[in-house]
Amino acid sequence: MEQNIKRIDASFSVAGQIGQSDLHSLAALGFATVMCNRPDHEGGPQQPEHAALQQAAQALGLRFVYLPISTRGATAQDVEQMRALLAQLPTPILAFCRTGNRSSKLYESATQPARDEAAYDVVVIGGGSAGISVSASLLKRDSALRIAVVEPSAEHYYQPAWTLVGGGAYDVKNTVRATAAVMPKGATWIKASLSAFAPERKVVLLSDGSELAYQQLIVCPGLELAWEKIEGLEDTLGKHGVTSNYRYDLAPYTWELVRTLRGATALFTQPPMPIKCAGAPQKAMYLACDHWRKQGVLDAMNVEFNLAGTVLFGVPIFVPPLMKYVEAYKAKLAFQSTLVKVDGPNKTAWFEVTDADGHVTRHAKTFDMLHVVPPQQAPDVIRRSPLADSGGWFEADPATLQHPRHADIFALGDVCGTPNAKTAAAVRKQVVVVAENLIALRKGAALPKRYDGYGSCPLTVEKGKVILAEFGYGGKLLPTFALDPSVARSSAWFLKASFLPWFYWQGMLKGREWFTDCSDN
């Protein structure tokens, strides 16, 4: 139970749906109050009613509160009721809904102080890699800029290292810092979520009901991991051998499985594109197989990589060297095979497989370990906005990263509908393009910078060696170093495992723009 709890602060934590058996664990963990934010009967007959949970909680000496929140989100009345409850309930509190998301947003709205409409030179939506980096770069260029960064999370993650965590090569604690600690000096942190755009009025609407006015807007909230699109997955993540390096709390479980499995079946999955770091699904497999090989148990393992696409990697030059590792690890490849359902307790996964004639059939496969990469999409607030493209991603000119219909709005990072790889390395180049072009726009000058689609995927094919894939739009190779990019190198491992994490915290997030040459107009 403990690994499924997300701590918001010292007094409040959230979790997905709980059962009566979880209440003993919550009491043992020291929680004083349990709050149910999931309406009864929302999930069907398998969902316990709140009355039964309340009776069991009270028998254990726990306070229990029922404050149901619709899937459409909390109303103003819900928020006011939450504020009143927080003032009187004993703490710490554990609130739950289906996934914990509604509980988290309700708490955020109830604890965010009301603000009058504020005006900023630049409003940045998102405080992840893109939002912090572009804010720092803008302030390096003009320290007088009034910049607000809208970001609900109190924690900031270096996600590229989670693959290494899952391979036993990195400490997960070194991938997280407080958002307050990485916020650029001179930027104002607005701890809230975006609710809607109003580009005609040049304001954004926030989750607490307030508005922020801007002269220029930068949109970079990242993307959403759609775990719920795979039936049964959310109920079994982190147990029964089901894991994912795409979550901070699950990457250590990947390593736990890898180092303990012997003579077992390990399935790795990759969903339809686009996803963040398209090489990460297979990198998890390579590091696991390398460990099993070094332990002398690889021959007893049954390893299979199920990918929704038709090719192992989208840039052809990197396929042959990757296939050598696939063959060396004796891994099977299952193309056009998409994970659609998981039964953790029975260790069975179902895949929809498309044959050469386009016929789709469903296949069940048993496993001891299942590494899942979930489908990915733009956040709902982006998909339903007038600023989205036909695929639901944020519409942006692929060269200038400016919105085609609203010249005062730019975007960068994973939310962009541009055809580049969604990686932190892409953000590193995009930051310069957006910062330079936005400053030029403010001066009434032509936009000077062009983004070439650069992205980098350090393919960790074994512990100690990496194939450094760097490419731009159309798969054009864009290597930083004058070396054959298709060769696995120990120097590239040092870059991935040591230099880049250091540079991320000490350079990129502080506005230092090394190796970021971009073309001029």
From TrEMBL:
Residue ranges occupied by any FAD/NAD(P)-binding domain in the UniProt entry: 120-240
Domain Beta-lactamase hydrolase-like protein phosphatase-like: 7-107
Pfam families: BLH_phosphatase, Pyr_redox_2
Entry superkingdom: Bacteria
Descriptive protein name: TIGR01244 family phosphatase
